Amino acid sequence: MPLETEARAQVRALIADLKPNDGDLLIALHRVQHRYGYISREAMEVVAEQLDLFAAEVYGATTFYSEFRLEPPAATTVRWCSGPACRLRNGTGIRDAMLATLGLQTLGEQTADGRVGLTVGQCNGTCELAPQVWVDRTEDHSSRVVGQLTAARAVRLARALRDGTDADDV
Ligand code: FES
What we know:
By secondary structure, the protein is an alpha+beta fold. It is 42% helix and 13% strand. The protein has a four-stranded mixed beta sheet with strand order 2-1-3-4, with helices on one face. The protein is elongated.
């Protein structure tokens, strides 16, 4: 068994009340991801030990479900609404402008310094704000909507996030 580090002890405490076997596996993974934003290999090992499972079983479940992340999220993740109302109002133009400004090829990527990621989001019914994105900060789990975007404003927002300048007024 690997040395018990502080990080491992924290994960262990997080799932200490769960029962051995795979009945609680998804609960354990959700807790880890909620706390850390992703599921590290070390965390998977602790989950396996705690639930008395093979590491391969935990790894298999983590990689099977697309909602689980294996890498740390960016400090700020912009979720781009892919819904129909946003698309009708130049949503794809906004997506492309942000990708280009951030130097990203496609949704799901993040800048090399880990500062900003751009990912796909789903319509949440607030289409009166279309076209819109949500700006999620990993550190404090906050989320801010930026709606009725134009391509120019999307570029300003992406630039501010990329450069670490104040993006709140954009
Ligand atoms: S389509 Fe974007 S919020 Fe509904």
